[in-house]
Please model this.
Amino acid sequence: MIGLLTAPAIDFPANRPLEDEPPVTAESADVADLAVRRARKGDRRAFEQLYRAHVGQVYGLCLRMTGQPAEAEDCAQEAFIQAWRKLAQFRGDAAFGTWLHRIAVNAVLARRRRVRPEDSLDDGAELGAAGESPADQRDLEAAVSTLPEGARHVFVLLAVYGYTHEEAGEMLGIASGTCKAQLHRARRLLAERLSAGPTPTEDQTSD
Model:
């Protein structure tokens, strides 16, 4: 289950009076758009409202991409910190949530490059996590979390969040053709994983 995170450790500027703006309330017709406009002007409370509205989805995306709750929490925090710093760049061409997803994906990729620079999105590792119960092996979320990193990232963005190959490729910095190949790979591995228990890899059998 996805839980709520604590407020991001962002050094917000002091709230500035906004004379011509109505207060952000639950009764406003376009609460999200109003909150974005206020936040872009430096209103901390408006950004905190956006944070509360989107933190669950952003954390869920990070968790599915990383497969690690602690790492996902760090990435989600970093995503909101970056969102606060880059609010002036938000033009409204896409929904605010979509813009946040792009920042979250970048946060995950940046962290993975930093923590495990030897890994790549096209990592050739196959499935086969040890120590899982049969119930976990047949659980889709558990199976997705054990996909090779490149296949997992593509599967999450396309199959879970509904992005196109072009959109996912832009987020991940890969060609749409690579996205298609990785999605095919992910589906094949998931089908194998959900229909039968994992086969230990060479690394696992040597431990």
